[in-house]
Design a protein that fits this description.
Elements (H helix, E strand, L loop, with lengths): L8 E2 L1 E9 L1 H4 L21 E7 L1 E2 L2 E2 L1 E2 L9 H8 L1 H4 L1 H7 L7 E4 L13 H8 L29 H9 L10
């Protein structure tokens, strides 16, 4: 087996209604071009996310350099196992890569994110829950991040607040 080296991955660009153009213009994310039409496959003015490292089946990162170029992350995990991710990580997650690294360009409001814990996600989707870490590299002075509710809220109250567009009243700033 050939020795591993620092891997670079092809970013996976995602259009979002709240996206912008900074990921392409300021962070040099390459826009994929359709081979037949020779046009961008995403609108560069609406790119909200660049998935820079993903082991998700439908969005498996592709290696951009070296002898493993064009291989996917999941393919090399099958080959290199613990040598790639560490023995303890491989023993726990097996062939599932547990990290998604992405950059966001948010020019509007994001939707409220609700993520299950491991037990609920496993029960419903046979997958792991979602922990997140956000590192804000740039933000407008008026930008805000809400995290959770500012008080105990029932599902029906939350639903009503969403319907009447007053959900911000119960979110924790």
């Amino acid at each position: 087996m050939l020795k591993l080296y620092p891997l670079k991955f092809v970013p996976i660009l995602k259009e979002r209604v709240w996206g912008g153009d900074k990921l392409v213009r300021h962070y040099n994310k390459a826009v994929p071009i359709d081979e037949e039409t020779h046009t961008p496959v995403v609108n560069i003015n609406d790119i909200g996310e660049s998935w820079d490292l993903s082991g998700m089946d439908e969005n498996d990162s592709v290696i951009a350099n070296g002898f493993l170029e064009e291989s996917t992350l999941n393919e090399i995990i099958e080959t290199y196992m613990g040598d790639l991710v560490g023995d303890n990580i491989f023993d726990y997650f097996n062939l599932h890569f547990p990290i998604l690294v992405k950059m966001l360009d948010v020019r509007g409001f994001l939707s409220v994110q609700v993520h299950p814990d491991d037990a609920t996600a496993f029960e419903r989707e046979y997958s792991y829950g979602k922990d997140e870490l956000w590192y804000v590299m740039e933000a407008a002075p008026e930008a805000k991040i809400y995290m959770g509710f500012n008080r105990k809220v029932t599902a029906s109250e939350f639903y009503q607040k969403c319907k009447d567009e007053t959900v911000e009243e119960i979110l924790n700033l």
